[in-house]
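Checklist before submission:
- one chain only
- standard amino acids only
- sequence pasted in full

Submission:
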Amino acid sequence: MAKILVIEDNSNLQALMSDFLNASGFQTLCTNNGRMGLAIVHTYHPDLVLSDVRMPEMDGYALLAALRQDAGTASIPFFFLTAESDVNHQLRTRCLTVEGWLSKPVDPLRLVAMIRQQLARRSAGTNQAESAQKSGLTACLLS
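Returned file contents:
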């Protein structure tokens, strides 16, 4: 059973996503901030991380940077959850080594489909983040 870490500071949304993911056959780990999320990653080694962008203590960008700088966590698939609709924000997240982003409110069926697709890619050895790093996409300038 794949372990999914959900990092979301809205407790209602966190609970809804966790319940839906559990009902879809995943094990979920949950927290409301990036700093705790980082600790959970190192302790429980999830198969995939879903992270809000704006959170207390450590935002999603800082969390992603910390994960990608550690060889033990760099290849964990990472999705941003965001209420941001700004085009610059969307371009920034696409320029990072993330597998994708989901706009809030999150469509639970799309969420599960994206997770399953990414886990299948990972098991086949085609992690998008690793491919992006190898192709130099991480050199994008971030504002």
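Reviewer check: The helical segments are 11-23, 34-44, 60-69, 87-95, 108-123, 128-135.
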